[in-house]
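User: ok so my PI wants both of these folded by tonight, can you help

Assistant: No problem, let's get them done. Here's the first:
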Amino acid sequence: MDKFPLMQGGVSVGELITEQEALYTWFEARCRLPGEGLWCAWAVGDRGELRLGVLEPCGDRATIRRRFSARLTAPLGKLRQGEIRP
């Protein structure tokens, strides 16, 4: 399990957790949303980005958990951080 900051506008608002499972990687993003509306979580690497999906409200926080194959995560390169974007 690895943890990375989940950023929004240069400020850490939560965390992105990754777990390897055979040929797959699980991504879990958790944060407090900075405002109303739909927010998407992204995994950002040194060579690319991967859209994880729309965060789901869960009490006073928001979360998403998704699994992607090695074929989809390989273009990211080395993971640097997560981001949330409107």
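One down. Here's the second:
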Amino acid sequence: MKEKLELIKNILGADPYSLVIGEIVEETDSRKEKNLDNGLKDYYSLMSGYKILNGGVITIYGQREISNIQFYTEEMPGGSDEWVCIGKIENYPLFISKKDGRVSCLFGNPLDQSYIIESYGDFNNFLYNYYLGKKYIEIGFKFFQSGGVTSTVGSKDDDWYIFLERNNLF
């Protein structure tokens, strides 16, 4: 995974207009989490070397950045005891389960009960299949189906999807 992220970072770095499409920023002073046996192990292992992974509508923050967005966990069932907010899909918070590493997004507004929690498997599955894979176009599909948005959040017309496809990164 790190090799693929490095390849993408180099491709993006060669294009001055790439910030519109995506951005991968390495962390110069990475933290190492020790003895993690829970669902956060894969996240901490990979993200110890990155400040941000941004591609299309998906943004995943590194360890130093996530402390500022943990207030979102109050909206998830189980709150901060069960979840860590690791980023966002468009404007919707993206979480990882402390127990099993499942990545989920909270689409909508929990206050007025018009929300859907969409899950994408564990962290590695999310990266391989959604952030860097063909399933990117399925991001937010349940929310779209429920009438929450008028168009899908990720699509084949999205610059990030086109970038991945054009560079044979699937």
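Strands lie at 22-26, 50-55, 58-61, 83-89, 92-97, 102-109, 114-122. DSSP finds six helices and seven strands in the chain. Good luck tonight!
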